Amino acid sequence: MEIFGIPIQALMGQLLIGLINGSFYALLSLGLAVIFGLLNIINFTHGAQYMLGAFGAYLLMNKLGLGYWWALVLVPLLVGATGVVIERTMLARLYKLDHLYGLLLTFGLGLIIQGLFRNEFGSTGLPYAIPSQLQGGQNLGFMFLPNYRAWVIGASLLVCLGTWFVIERTKLGGYLRAATENPQIVQAFGINVPRMITLTYGFGVALAALAGVMAAPIYQVSPQMGADLIIVVFAVVVIGGMGSIMGAIITGFGLGLIEGLTKVFYPEASSTVIFVIMAIVLLVRPAGLFGTQK
Fold first, then answer.
1. 95 falls in which pLDDT band (50, 70, 90)?
2. Which element (helix H / strand E) includes 226?
């Protein structure tokens, strides 16, 4: 069976790859959107923190014998804790300055982290095994669906929608949004705004680390893995709207699918289609598809 002259197995396979990529685009752009929307920091360290998540899983396995499920819990907490330290010791000093200072600081930190890991582990990718519980797959007739890839898509969607619900539909999220607009009033209600800001940055970093852990069995663990992805993720955030939580989620998954379809119908454009879409969106709607013009 064919669709537009393309075998359905090939089409569905590329759509699956697109959904996998979209899962990581959504998780990473969600972390960026949380950090920018609530802290007004353009976090260029995000790619390195994603890489730290993958290496954290690799090191837990090889040094301590702790498998994937332990890494899924421990690594986001540990990498998120490093984010808390970065925010308290460095970023907190820059909030009253131009955004450019935060961008330059986080860009420099990302280069330092990546360089340290490249010196220690080299540039060659390191393998990380799929957990035994998620090996194999399901034959759907028109395609073979690997269990681990189905898990990544489902888990990413669950984390993204859970984050959106907390920020947009709960009292805690209301405090977070209010703290970005008028921190003095929120402080007057007894809320520790600096602590809230610190934990928010740590949570955004933890999302990047979580994406890194889930990416480790699919892509090889490499110091460059974050640098290869972060530019695309920033394009996703710009298209969805800087600071828009739902925009990051919908745009991440949607652009992953568009990228997958492009690889089927016009492979030469698959590496640039997201940037072409970004240019068009910026011309038509500079605030992004789901952003608000300030």
1. confident
2. helix 225-240
Over the stretch 38-81, which tens digit does the pLDDT of each residue have?
A: 778 889 999 999 999 999 999 999 999 999 999 999 999 999 99
Give the model confidence (pLDDT) of 101-140 as tens digits: 888 999 999 999 999 999 999 888 899 999 999 999 988 8
For the chain, how far is it from start to end, CA to CA, in angstroms? 50
**Residue 138: its H or E element:** strand 137-139
Whether 117 contacts 55, CB under 8 Å: yes
For residue 94, give the DSSP letter: S
Query: What does the block give as tokens for 33?
Result: 């959107």
In one-letter notation, the amino acid at residue 35 is I
What the block records as the tokens of 105 is 């600081």
Task: Count other Cβ atoms within 10 Å, centred on residue 246.
Answer: 18
Length of the chain: 294
Query: Could you tell me the two tokens for 42?
Result: 């353009």
**How many other β-carbons are positioned within 10 Å of the β-carbon of residue 22?**
27
Sign of the torsion angle spanned by Cα atoms 103, 107, 110, 112: negative
